[in-house]
Predict the structure of 4-hydroxy-tetrahydrodipicolinate reductase.
Amino acid sequence: MTNIILRGCNGKMGQVITQMVEEDENTVIVAGIDLSANRMNKYPVYHSFFQCNVKADVIIDFSSPKNIGEMLEFAMQKRIGIVLCTTGFSKEDLEMIDRASTVIPILRSANMSMGINLILKLVQEAAILLSEAGFDIEIVEKHHNKKLDAPSGTALALADAMNEVLNNEYGYKYDRSLDRKEREKKQIGISAVRGGTIVGEHEVIFAGTDEVIEIKHTAYSKAIFAKGAVQAAKFLPGKTAGMYQMSDVIG
Ligand SMILES: NC(=O)c1ccc[n+]([C@@H]2O[C@H](COP(=O)([O-])OP(=O)(O)OC[C@H]3O[C@@H](n4cnc5c(N)ncnc54)[C@H](O)[C@@H]3O)[C@@H](O)[C@H]2O)c1
Ligand SMILES: O=C(O)C1=N[C@H](C(=O)O)CCC1
C-alpha cells in the first residue's frame, strides 16, 4: 500500500486524484495540504506542512509554487519523495528543488500524460532533422481560462527537450508584438491561448519552405494527468535521492 500526502487536494487536479486513489486498492491518501478549505474530504486536510505530522511514503503536489520550501523541508525531514506536478516555478525555486533532490527522490514533470512524454522524444528527433533542413520551430499551447501560468510547463518542457538536442543554441520568443524585424533562425516561438474549459493542447509546428509538419497532443480529460501521477507515486518510494522523470516510470 502506498500512503500519499496530496498537496493541492482541494483544487481541480487534487479532486481528480482523490477519486482515482479511492478506486485504487494499492494507494491511499493519508492527508491533504491546501490553502483553501472548500471541500469535504475523507482524509484530514491541513493548511500547511507545519501542522501535519502524518506518516506517508510519498507526496503528490498539484498546487502552486507558493511556499515550495515548506514542502521540500518536510519531505527531507521525513525522507520521503515528491511527485512534483505543479508548474510555473521560478529559477530560484528550481534551484531549491535541485538541492533537495540530493537528499530525497523527486520526480518533476510538467505533464504526467503518456502522450506528451512520448512526444518529448518525437520532437527531439524531428528538431534535429528539420532544423538542419531550415525549418522554423513554433509551439502553440491552449488551456482553460483558470490557468495561472503561461506559457504552460509542458510548452517549456517541449522547447527544452528540443533545445537540448540543438546544443542549447535556441532562444525562446514569447511575444512578437514589439518587433519590426524578421524572425531569428535559432528561435523557438511559444504562444499561449487561454479560454473556456480547454483541458490542454500542445502543438509543435515545424515550418519549412512550402511545407509544414505539426506534432500535436490533445488532452480530453484531467484523468490522463492523474493516472501518471498515481503511477509515479507508486514508483518513487524506496528510490535513491535524485531527480527522476516520467520516462523513468513509463520507459
Ligand atoms: N504535471 C501535470 O501533468 C499537470 C496537469 C495539470 C495541472 N498541473 C499543474 O498543477 C497545478 C494545479 O493545477 P489545478 O488545475 O489543480 O489548479 P487549481 O487552482 O484548481 O488547484 C490548486 C489547489 O492548490 C491549492 N494551493 C495553491 N497553493 C498552495 C500552497 N502553497 N499550499 C497548499 N495548497 C495550495 C489551491 O488552494 C487549490 O485548491 C498547476 O500548477 C498546474 O499547471 C500539472
Ligand atoms: O491545467 C493545467 O494547468 C495544466 N498544466 C500543465 C502545464 O502547465 O503544462 C499540464 C497540462 C494541464
Observations:
- Residues 87, 110-111, 143, 147, 152-154, 200 surround LLHOTIJI (ligand 2) (CB under 6 Å).
- The longest helix spans residues 114-132.
- The mean pLDDT is 97.
